Amino acid sequence: MSDSFFGHQAFVSNLRNTPSPGEPAPEDAAPSQDMPGAELVPPANMRSSWLLVHASHAVRMKIESALKPCGLTGLQMSVLNMIKNRGGSSSAELSRRFFKTPQAMGQLLNPLLEQGLIQRAEDPDNRRVLRLTLTDAGRKAYATGDAAMRRLERDVFSRFDDETLDTLRASLYQISHLPSHSASAKRKDD
Predict the structure, then answer these.
(1) How far is it, in rounded angstroms, from Cα 188 to Cα 90?
(2) For position 112, what pLDDT does the model report?
(3) What is the pTM of this model?
């Protein structure tokens, strides 16, 4: 989803299910959710998909804040992570992975190239393909960003015991691998 979708203030306000100043609180709103140490319980009428979107937005904002001192955005860190873990990627592979057009991916990659964090080189197996790899500066930036992400994860998930965190991770992984509507329709037609 686009950054403007997640950044839309009215949308986020509706997700929080909080009244405007002077309005009475909804009857189904969970009491004392803002109190430190209080158990957080979602309103009974809030759909799981909205909770997931809201949680994603909250974590994205924390990620952006944690990576800002490193000079990276969350998306840039994700791109560096993919390039690092795959031993190099093409721009086309990144475009597909991040659901971006080639032009949009080029705009995302340009600052990383200009900062000297990534470099392009011919693929030895196919000279028409340019592989992106991390430079020494890119590996250092990645390491700094990764340390910030580890601190962030400890903070965000500190309320969860290991078993709950394992269940959450497995559930999120399953959700992230759901086939899209168009992909499932395409398979039926094949």
Answers:
(1) 30
(2) 94
(3) 0.67
